[in-house]
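Possible regression after last week's pipeline update?

I re-ran a chain I had predicted before the update to compare outputs. Posting the input and the new output here so someone can diff against the archived version. Not blocking, just want to make sure nothing changed silently.
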Amino acid sequence: MSRRPSRLLRASAGVLVFGAVAVLASTPLLRRRRLTVEVAGDSMLPALEAGDWLLVARRPPPLDASAFGRVVVTRDRTGRLLVKRVVGLPGEVVQIEDGRVRIDGRPLDEPYVRGETEAAPYRALTLLDSDSYYLLGDHRPASTDSRDLGGVRRDAIEGTVVARYWPRGRVSRLRPPARRFLEA
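New output (post-update):
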């Protein structure tokens, strides 16, 4: 006899999770602490797709190394909501050259990045303030991010993504990847 849950049981569990998130997110107390966001573009492919709905905790990432890789929500200069990944931490020097991100001179391993990261004419060197992060989209050619905005201050980050709760087949927690560097 199979120990795997039936398709019906898995579908029912997904509906229950979605229903629980929807009910909890609508309570007044949690509305102040939580935000729901629909992904509208391709800048975070493959991790997030257009049409994904995210549950966001209304708090910025921590000021330590555990902030790396977290997906956060901020706004561009026009007020448009942006969903991006933290790649540079407060006090670090972020350099982008020939499509490679370097942190304090060390090349960053970015298995979450989709497609060509090479942007031949783009070169940048950014020293982050003690309360700023460097945010990038996973699909760099389609992303408005710190390459355009510069370092993003901690108080400008509206929240940290906790989970994707819709569509039902993609319900999951968003866990940050481990921070790894390539051999120089």
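Follow-up from reviewer: compared with the archived run. The chain has three helices and 13 strands. Marking as no regression found.
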